[in-house]
Amino acid sequence: MKIGIVGRPQVGKTTVFNTLAQSTAEIGGYTSRGQINLSTANVPDERLEQIAKISESGKTTPATIDYVDVAGVTKSEMEHAELDSGMLAELRTVDALAHVVRLFEDERVPHVDGSVDAERDIESVALEFALADLQIVEGRLTRLRKQFQNQKLPEQQSEIRLLEMCQKTLEAGKPLRTLDLSANEEKLIRGYGFLTQKPLLLVCNIGETQLQAADEIFQRFRKYKTAPQTDVIVLAAQLEMELSQLDETDTEIFMEELGLHESALERFIQTSYQLLGLLTFFTTGPVETRAWTLREGQTAVDAAGRVHTDFATGFIRSETINWADLVACGSYPEARSKGLLRAEGKTYQVQEGDVLLILANPTH
User: In the predicted model, is pLDDT for residue 36 greater than 70?
Assistant: First the structure.
């Protein structure tokens, strides 16, 4: 999973990035055009160690998330519709966008527009991304119409009709994620990486003094959750970044004092997984216990392909058990004797927390 962190300048984007990625990227006045921060973060998962004990694994490997932090969208870019091309190219490769919205007040960090107005910033960035998508749509339509003006090739005509629908949607001020597309239509435009088609997580960045009002702030912005593929979380990025730099014991003490029940990283990941329709499955053995990410609805063959492409090609079946059942049994033989270890075929849809032992024919 790859998530792009976006927003206006001086809203705390890089602070959020540092918190999530356990990074130390420069913050405060970071507006260097073309500069992009990249990092890969492990997904915390307490289940890994418990499963590893069953197999006496030599190591554990968590799932990972790639984070991309780009420079803020400036007023000059908005006025001239000239978003950085390198930034756009990078963002078109991500699976989802995390739009950091500033709600904290800090005289030391003046807002680029002179005042803190979260709704204004949400609309501003959404408009810029819509214009960037519209530019791609109009350019592609011009080329297709010119290239196939005297031909009636079904595939090209289908793409033209779909792009015309995208054009009307964007011109109406709506993001492409609001369109209900078929699987074939999704495939036709997947390569464009439209920004407004990507799932969107609005990250309301509050100050430490606003912690007590976090629920109220969430209620204020939950209206955005009604839009397709959109979700909202509230966090205090500066505080969370400082907590992430402490050792585990000190972090727990401070979180308890502040009334925080889980870290921003945990909440961000949980919400991202839900937004993208992702789940975690595990493989385990004496060498390694590993967590893998899969989309909801994908099959055992898809899971086998995540582990190794040859496993998908030569797939026979998977021996499957829920992680909690395996841990409760204490061993595979005990799980098998209780009938909890199931043989699943190619069409089995993998469930959250499944532990898979994949059986496949060797390929050459």
Answer: yes
